[in-house]
Write a structure and sequence with these properties.
272 residues, alpha/beta, 6-stranded mixed β-sheet, 6-stranded parallel β-sheet, globular, binds 2'-monophosphoadenosine-5'-diphosphate
Length: 272
């Protein structure tokens, strides 16, 4: 590092367990870029000052995580997708102008496309929170999407993207799952405790099942889906691809996703 080193960062709270510094620093090393990626713990009250700091210090690029994704969207220039979902997870500092993007939806899409074709597929998303919304927005461009949410109003609010929104009830789950090619858990269920929103007997081979939860990597949903012969896509693939998309926005380089996954897995193993 020297006086020319470009600084990149993730902001949010908590960030001390973030895998982004690990993944991006591995990429900077691989592509021999004079850059470093660090983590700044920033609470919601300080979001505006933090964005001012990015500008003042000339930080080259930033990832934004919980709980700042919506708040930060108020202070940067938004891409079409970031405006549509009202959330920013990537900031590009373009000669002092801060541009806000969201790569969560694209991350999910590219992770899925690694394993299946989405054109014309029937996709069932469980959850209409920040992640569910971003994924529904992106996938609705190519697939036929249904979103089920515990709080039905939040699912209905996504109908403006051309998706179908409904309540997460056992009846709806059974009905829409029968029609689905791809099932995505975009809720936090599975993160704390070995729980799944989908009864094992509803899963069948041929279905592609993705979970956005990556800790644990093998959630109950994915474990049972695998036992039933489904194709499974874990949450680390989504994390890796959203990071790769941020990296592309900052550097123009198509990142080595295998490397990103390998170093992230090592880091996850260490923190167990
Ligand atoms: P994120 O940004 O990670 O999506 P979020 O915005 O807090 O986080 O959203 C969490 C999602 O998980 C929501 O869809 C939430 O449903 P509600 O909108 O009804 O709250 C869903 N969720 C969390 N716990 C759940 C549970 N036990 N059963 C069903 N859905 C749950």
């Amino acid at each position: 590092m020297d006086a020319e080193t470009k600084v990149y960062a993730v902001i949010g709270k908590p960030v001390r367990h973030s895998l982004s510094p690990t993944m991006h620093n591995a990429l900077f090393k691989k592509y021999r870029l004079n850059a470093v990626y660090v983590a700044f713990e920033v609470s919601r009250e300080n979001a505006k000052e933090a964005v001012g700091g990015i500008k003042a210090l000339g930080i080259a690029g930033v990832n934004v995580t919980m709980p700042l994704k919506e708040e930060v969207a108020r202070y940067v220039e938004l891409s079409e997708a970031a405006r549509a979902i009202g959330s920013v997870n990537t900031i590009v500092n373009s000669n002092g102008k801060l541009l806000g993007y969201t790569t969560d939806g694209i991350g999910a899409r590219r992770a899925l496309e690694r394993f299946t074709t989405l054109e014309g597929a029937n996709v069932l998303i469980l959850g209409a929170g920040g992640a569910g919304k971003a994924i529904a927005y992106e996938l609705s461009k190519v697939a036929s999407v249904v979103v089920l949410n515990r709080t039905v109003e939040k699912a209905k609010a996504l109908e403006k993207f051309g998706v179908k929104g409904d309540a997460l009830t056992p009846e709806n789950l059974e009905y829409y799952l029968e029609l689905a090619d791809v099932l995505i858990n975009a809720t936090s269920v599975g993160m704390n405790g070995d729980r799944s929103l989908v009864p094992r007997e509803m899963l069948r081979s041929g279905l592609v099942v993705m979970d956005i939860v990556y800790k644990p990597l093998m959630t109950r949903l994915l474990r049972e889906a695998k036992e039933k012969g489904c194709t499974i896509v874990d949450g680390l693939w989504m994390l890796v691809y959203q990071g790769a998309e941020s990296f592309r926005l900052w550097t123009g380089i198509e990142a080595d996703v295998e490397l990103m996954r390998r170093v992230a897995l090592e880091r996850l193993g260490e923190s167990k």
